[in-house]
Design a protein that fits this description.
This protein has 878 residues and is an alpha/beta fold. It has 27 helices and 30 strands. The strands form 7 sheets. It has an 8-stranded mixed beta sheet, with no helix packed on it. The protein has a 7-stranded mixed beta sheet with strand order 22-23-24-25-26-27-28. The chain is globular and about 95 Å long.
């Protein structure tokens, strides 16, 4: 019996050389249909050299568009005229002996430069045309009719000082009509960024996320692209230069959008499909509920900041941005595995259903269009669809080509259509990753197979390594960090991406017709989605998962040079298995960083440390040693990443108690980083639950992790190992959270707090003979009340004082004299705008005999010692 490879397959059985730019490199030799043979010949001639003729024109158009967008009309006209004149001069060059291919190549480059300059000039002029730019410079209040061009998206929660920035909805839009107060209505078409303030009014039980990390529900989030709205807003100049918006349209005080034009039928259909997928995933576990919409259609509205940070740390963010990988998976269902895309044989649904070759190309085109509409025309989506369209056109005409020309054609067409893509980092990463898969990956895969690596593993490893090598410099510019676990995490997650995507798309397609079936498919898809989330979290939790890197193009060039050196050295090491093993072991130790080895190499954490004040910027986060790998955490700082890094460096995996002294963002916003991958026994807080939104954020986060929340009050005593502590403030039995408009009080016998600072939890800690006084952010009224309280006697002559409120000028001299610390620690951020610590406070502490250390100058601080009573007291700096 002959194999399928030896059987003539007929006139409609030829396959394209490839069907998307994201496809993996084929393992077998590639073939082209000869121009002299009919389409579908079973033995076409072998492939010739890679056709690179379209690469220079595409790169020239890309560079020209990026540079010309900000150019004046005179420069644009000069570039276009100069290029056209140069093309005209090529005719005399023919008589000078230039080869015809050289003339054609130069002419193609010049014509593409001229076209890109003209297109970029016209698009750039949109930012200066019409009345909107002038009104923005005047900060005018206007009534505008806008047409949405993107999905609404929420701003990420960010701690600014002791509060969290208000939540806002961001929407890209075109202003179609604008009317200044008392003026006439002017018809225009100007791109703007619309910012809608929703604040605390939008918080609800589910939906998006509020400023403090809680959910938000707003009618603005349900709007679809192509919807027309009428808004009253204030115009302002664009926040950054070189952007594709002419102005910012700030909408305040408009709770609901005023719709004056419904979205298009295609967008309504896409919206129903996306909403159906969200409904189908509602009952899944948290990670799958968040990830599946992101994997399928790029809907990241449910991704928590903690999970997003894990994906960034492991360079898995591309799985949440719909790209060529998603399109490859879909077309693989239609055409078969990418490994056969360059061969005559076809697999997939189309040949099994008897669909002809050209009909398959038409179906693929329809699938491409639907893919763009449902997933939205983001840069990577457009690039993938354009590459797929070029390959499908080659399939339909029988002119099978290499993917390099397909990628170059896609880049050229997209840059001419939308020159702003030339400045898009997403587009750059998409093209660079695809180029790596088409150029480096096949060669590296072949080299690995020659050294005995199994073919499938060699292809996967080469693809992940090639994409990481070329994309890492660009990612470093964006994140100022280089991931050391990206390649293994991508390899491990790769096995789950395809089934999660296929099942997710199936749920998307069936949701409008049969929601129970969609829910069943989503339930099946949640297993691979959970696997991907677990890979991201595990990789991000490793102490050496990434290293900081200069976030500039100079840093990118340095990383590219380092990568080149590593590749050259690695190529030589492949022939020496023992050296490869040694290098692999060293890399594993760098990533895992076993605490004993880290302590020997870096000296951090120092042996016998009792207290560590983490450097978390303008905020507070401390760790009290409670045994090997165990610590009590007091406050979480403003940034989850910073406190998580500190805890990882200390080897903390178990936390019997987290004490949140009060609910200001610089003390609680980092709580997700404390909870990340650690066993937490309980959270203890103050009874004064203000600000209310951040108190609710803490309770939601604790409920999601099933961590009990208790209230601290003066007189409470606890112990774990050699560590014991006594709560000395606030007084016991605090009242319930005050009603809006009322003035909260802790106890009638004590002064009403002026705010959350005066309700901070203060603790006297004893650890191996040391006495530590932690004052939270207490202000002078509460400090004076504490000095007169029954606990005042135990506050005298402490070894270490955590200075209240980041060393602000508002301190009670009497409490400082009573405490008389030997060492005063101040947690504050470098160059903070509050002037912390106050010079007068530092001077008063030193005058009392205390050594003063601060995190903005000294970094993280570890207190070592255990004799107390004037014995040895040392401090180590990270």
């Amino acid at each position: 019996m002959r194999s399928a490879r030896d059987v003539p397959t007929g006139r409609d059985e030829a396959a394209p050389e490839a069907f998307t730019a994201g496809s993996a490199a084929p393992a077998r030799s590639s073939v082209h249909a000869s121009s002299g043979k009919r389409l579908g010949s079973s033995r076409p001639r072998q492939e010739g050299p890679t056709d690179l003729r379209l690469v220079p024109p595409a790169l020239a158009a890309w560079g020209t568009a990026a540079l010309v967008l900000d150019a004046s009309p005179g420069w644009v006209l000069g570039i276009v005229a100069g290029c056209l004149a140069a093309v005209g001069l090529l005719q005399p060059a023919r008589r000078a002996g230039w080869a015809s291919w050289s003339r054609a190549s130069v002419a193609a480059v010049l014509l593409c430069v001229a076209a890109a300059a003209a297109s970029a000039g016209l698009h750039g002029a949109d930012l200066h045309r019409g009345p909107v730019p002038r009104l923005a410079r005047e900060y005018a209040t206007v009534t505008a009719e806008v047409e949405l061009t993107s999905d609404p998206r929420l701003t990420r929660p960010k701690a600014r000082g002791d509060h969290v920035a208000p939540t806002a909805v961001l929407i890209d839009a075109d202003v179609r009509r604008v009317q200044e107060a008392g003026g006439a209505t002017v018809v225009t078409r100007t791109p703007v960024l619309m910012i809608v303030d929703v604040g605390s009014a939008g918080r609800a039980a589910d939906g998006g996320r509020a400023a403090a990390g809680g959910p938000v529900r707003s009618p603005w989030l349900g709007l679809l692209p192509s919807t027309r709205l009428r808004v009253g807003a204030r115009l302002a100049p664009a926040m950054t230069g070189g952007d594709r918006v002419a102005a910012v349209l700030r909408v305040r005080g408009q709770a609901e959008p005023e719709v004056v034009g419904e979205p298009s039928a295609a967008q309504r259909l896409a919206g129903r499909l996306r909403a159906g997928l969200r409904e189908a995933t509602d009952g899944l576990p948290a990670d799958a509920r968040a990830l599946l919409p992101g994997l399928v259609v790029g809907d990241t509205s449910r991704i928590t900041p903690e999970l997003e940070e894990a994906f960034k740390e492991t360079d898995l963010t591309h799985t949440l941005a719909v790209s060529g990988a998603n399109f490859t998976i879909l077309l693989a269902l239609l055409l078969g595995p990418p490994g056969l895309a360059q061969h005559v044989e076809r697999r997939g649904l189309a040949p099994r259903l008897g669909v002809s070759l050209r009909a398959t190309a038409v179906l693929g085109g329809v699938l491409s269009l639907g893919f763009v509409v449902v997933c939205r025309p983001d840069p990577s989506v457009l690039r993938a669809a354009a590459c797929g369209a070029v390959a499908l056109l080659a399939l339909a005409t029988g002119r099978r080509r290499s993917l390099i020309p397909a990628l170059a054609t896609a880049v050229l067409l997209l840059v001419l259509y939308d020159p702003w893509l030339a400045r898009s980092y997403g587009f750059l990463l998409s093209v660079v990753a695809t180029g790596a898969l088409l150029t480096l990956a096949p060669r590296w895969s072949a080299g690995l197979r020659r050294r005995g690596v199994p073919p499938r593993l060699a292809e996967a490893l080469a693809a992940a390594a090639a994409a990481q090598a070329l994309c890492a410099p660009v990612v470093a510019v964006l994140s100022a960090r280089v991931s050391l676990v990206a390649v293994p995490c991508n390899l491990i997650a790769e096995f789950a991406i395809a089934p999660a995507t296929v099942l997710g798309f199936a749920a998307l397609a069936t949701a409008p017709m049969a929601m129970p079936v969609a829910k069943a498919l989503a339930w099946c898809a949640h297993w691979p989605a959970e696997w991907i989330a677990e890979v991201a979290r595990t990789g991000a939790a490793l102490p050496g998962a990434g290293v900081d890197w200069p976030g500039s193009w100079a840093g990118a060039a340095l990383l590219a040079a380092v990568t080149l050196v590593v590749l050259l050295v690695g190529r030589r090491l492949l022939g020496h298995p023992w050296w490869c093993g040694v290098c692999g072991l060293v890399l594993m130790l760098v990533v895992v960083q076993p605490p004993p080895l880290t302590r020997v190499v870096t000296g951090w954490p120092p042996p016998g440390w009792r207290l560590v004040m983490c450097d978390v910027g303008q905020g507070d986060a401390m760790v009290l040693a409670a045994g090997e790998g165990t610590g009590v955490v007091v406050d979480a700082g403003p940034d989850p990443q910073l406190v998580d890094h500190c805890l990882r460096s200390l080897g903390i995996t178990r936390i019997p108690l987290v004490v949140l002294t009060h609910f200001h963002a610089d003390h609680v916003a980092g709580l997700p980083g404390v909870l990340r991958g650690r066993a937490v026994g309980a959270i203890e807080t103050t009874g004064y639950e203000e600000p209310a939104d951040q108190a609710a954020f803490v309770r939601r986060l604790a409920a999601a992790r099933r961590v009990p929340v208790t209230r601290a009050a003066a007189g409470q005593r606890r112990r774990t190992g050699e560590l014991s502590w006594q709560v000395v403030w606030p007084p016991p039995s605090p009242p319930p959270t005050p009603a809006p408009g009322s003035h909260p009080q802790l106890l009638p016998a004590h002064p009403a707090p002026e705010g959350p600072n005066d309700a901070s939890v203060a603790m006297l800690v004893r650890s191996a003979g040391l006495r530590l006084l932690l004052l939270g952010d207490l202000e002078p009224p509460a400090q004076r009340a504490l000095a007169r309280s029954p606990a005042a006697d135990v506050l005298e002559s402490v070894d270490v004082l955590k200075v209240a409120h980041h060393g602000s000028a508002y301190q009670d001299p009497g409490l400082i004299r009573r405490a008389a610390p030997r060492l005063a620690l101040i947690s504050c951020g470098a160059d903070n705008t509050y002037g912390h610590p106050a010079p007068g406070t530092v001077a008063a502490l030193r005058a009392g005999g205390a050594a003063v250390l601060r995190t903005d100058q000294d970094g993280s601080l570890a207190v070592v010692g255990g004799t107390g009573g004037g014995g040895e007291l040392r401090v180590a700096r990270d």
